[in-house]
Amino acid sequence: MADRRIGALIGAVVAGVLLAGCGGGEPKELQAGEIRVLVGERTNSGNDALLSGALSDVSGCLGVDNFAVIWPHGTEVASEDPLAVSVPGWGRVGLGDPVELGGGMITEGPQSDPVHVGELTVPDECAEHGVWGAWN
Fold it and tell me: Dihedral sign, CA of 105, 5, 27, 97?
């Protein structure tokens, strides 16, 4: 249990540093019907991992497969029905669309403490399977 907490803490600290590194854009939580779109702070850096899968509703947050995603700064809801978002540098993607997101894993699996990414708090139900930070 302690290893999981340490891993979550390290992930949150790394994500916070990456998101705060270049500052300038506040995080926000957008609402698109029943689904929240979590948008991170402006940053010019991030991890180089790749997450591939289908855009999905992850317990009420927009994600990919089972991961809730912190979307790049500037992401906006393009359409609520059907849900689609406009992601800077990538274009428009909708629920069910295949995507490949650069970035990195912030947490994996259930967390006993709230997940904070910079100034953004990921809802507990969304963080159940893990949180991915997508950077542009």
Answer: positive
Cα–Cα distance, 94 to 83 (Å, whole number) = 6
SS3 percent helix, strand, coil of the chain, rounded to 5, is 15, 50, 40
**Cα–Cα dist 88/76, whole Å:** 9
Length of the chain in terms of residues written: 136
From residue 45, alpha-carbon distances to 16, 54, 99, 120 in Å are 12, 24, 20, 17
Q: For 110-122, how does the pLDDT look when each residue is reduced to its tens digit (9 = 90+)?
A: 888 899 988 999 9
Quote the CA–CA distance of 80 and 99 in Å, as a whole number.
19
Q: 3-state DSSP call for residue 122? A: strand
What are 82-106's pLDDT values in tens digits?
999 999 988 999 999 999 999 999 9
Q: pTM value? A: 0.78
